[in-house]
Amino acid sequence: MGALKPWHIAVLVVVLILLFGAKRLPDAARSLGRSLRIIKAETKSLHDDDRDLAEKADAQAGYQPLPPNPAQQQYAPQQPPQQQYAPQPQQPVDPVQRVRDN
């Protein structure tokens, strides 16, 4: 009952020719083919981008720094730790007093 018979296709083609005309059908098919090609290329590029991001994430997750070489540690000069100086907080300045001083 749901089978598509050859005469169904023939009726569909006749209806399409009557609706759109014989000149427009090849142009419509051509533009439909271009659109499908563009969609296919875009979905493929999205898939490739996802794969590239996954590979980069895997590469960065596996990154571990090299352990220090014991031979280099023996001869490295000892540097004193650098002291961090905190900036001194500034006293709030009264704008009126500042104008009077100048």
Can you describe what's shown?
It contains four helices and no strands. It is elongated. The chain has helices at 6-20, 24-61, 70-75, 95-101. With 102 residues, it is mostly helical.
Helix content: 55-70%
Describe the sheet with the most strands. none
End-to-end distance: 100 Å
- Strand tally is 0
Structural class: mainly alpha
Mean pLDDT: 76
Spell the H/E element sequence.
Answer: HHHH
Name its key features.
102 residues; mainly alpha; elongated
A few lines on this structure:
The chain has 102 residues and is an all-alpha fold.
Strand-helix topology:
Blueprint (H helix, E strand, L loop, with lengths): L5 H15 L3 H38 L8 H6 L19 H7 L1
